[in-house]
Amino acid sequence: MALFKPKFITFDCYGTLINFDMAGAAAARFASRVSPEKMTAFTTDFAYYRRDEVLGAFKLYPQVVGDALYRTCNKWGVECTEQDCAAIMTACASWGPHADVPAGLAKVATEFPLVLLTNSTDALIKHHVPRLGVPIHMTITAEEVGAYKPQMKGFEYMLSRLNCAPDEILHVSSSLRYDLMTAFDLGITHTVFVNRGHDPANPAYGYTEIQDIGGLPAVVGL
Fold first, then answer.
1. Are residues 147 and 116 in the same domain?
2. Residue 54 maps to which CATH number?
3. Full strand arrangement of the beta sheet holding 8-11
4. What is the pLDDT of residue 1?
């Protein structure tokens, strides 16, 4: 893997690069409605419902979050308002990168064009890209594609825009279920799993595992 020189390094953004703390935002917002001992289960359900929401017909990400939050609250029997959804999206726009990201990206950005394939909107991602601290060659949002990962359409669209074959890129993500399983199914043979604890590891998918973006330069021989 260290000898492979991709034409592009492509990334998932939220969770992998940006510290996308939906659980923390939901916990803060619902602290008076969900007990501390139940909060982890509540926020885990919120994550599961968000993933379920992106598998259906396309809608903008604030609607995905809102619908997932309403479903979560319905399951738990707690009140959910439009203000709750708006507060979580406001928090989302404020988040920055994980501490390891700027330096790790800076090392690979000198040698490879960096591309983002993100389950975001065109407006929302504009808050986050400048905080990465490096030039981004191309940013592709779910809004542009009209579909969210883990659906295949985003990867197919990205490969078409980059004029690349699946084995010519290196895709980096902290999520097996949103990214790396789909990449595997599409024949993207060079992948990196950033193990931030979002998904359990499964080496059967043939990725290289790193603990943070600081480990990425070594993967491409830098």
1. yes
2. 1.10.150
3. 138-141, 114-118, 8-11, 169-173, 191-194, 208-210
4. 44
